[in-house]
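Follow-up to my earlier ticket, as requested here are the two runs.
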Amino acid sequence: MLQKRLWRRCKYVIAGLKKMRYETVPADGAFDAFVKVPGNDMDVASRWLEKGHVTATPGAAFDAPGWVRLSYAASMERIRKVG
């Protein structure tokens, strides 16, 4: 049951990001999605937090510079509110 809900959230987040023209892939073995961002991933993560109240981890922390990592381990209600 939990796996179905998490998979639904993953598909929702990735579809929404693709609509915004972001290249996106789910992270292996986690409840996160990697998002390719233009420019410095640290700057993008800071801007998303400041302007959109979205917490993203810079990809450089995972040896993936140019990407940010977003969690979808929140409720669908919360995810929809942000999206």
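Run two:
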Amino acid sequence: MTKLEMTEAIFSAKLSKGVSWVDIGTAIGLSDIFTASACLGQNSLSPEDANQLASFLDLDDAVATALTVCPMKAMDTDLVSKDPLIYRFYEIAYVYGGAIKECIHEKFGDGIMSAIDFTCDIAKQEDPKGDRVVVTMNGKFLPYKKW
């Protein structure tokens, strides 16, 4: 089973069961963002987590196996800045962008986060294992107009 086939099976089961990414993540003990990212093929799960997810969604072993395969991430990086810091933001968008989009749509509906009515804060969180960068993005939700 390919990652694309895996994703299609998961989305079909998710819709059929009427569950959210939060529901799925809670069932396997992972965050909704990471769970959605793995289901979109941008991360892999341990065999235990993959089996729990497949069981929760009533999916077969082929889906669980596909979830454990390490993905090829961000294949089209020729247009991405080579600056290491900026590149990491592209990496975040490639790996977690689809998952973030899925979770925003579940919580707000069909629309986008504004980059016009937007704030971004950077904070430093001290950690004995290495200081952490905390990026908080705050954008107004703009629903798509229906007509």
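The only thing I checked on run two: Residues 110-147 form a domain with the Cyanate Lyase; Chain: A, domain 2 fold (CATH 3.30.1160.10). Let me know what else you need.
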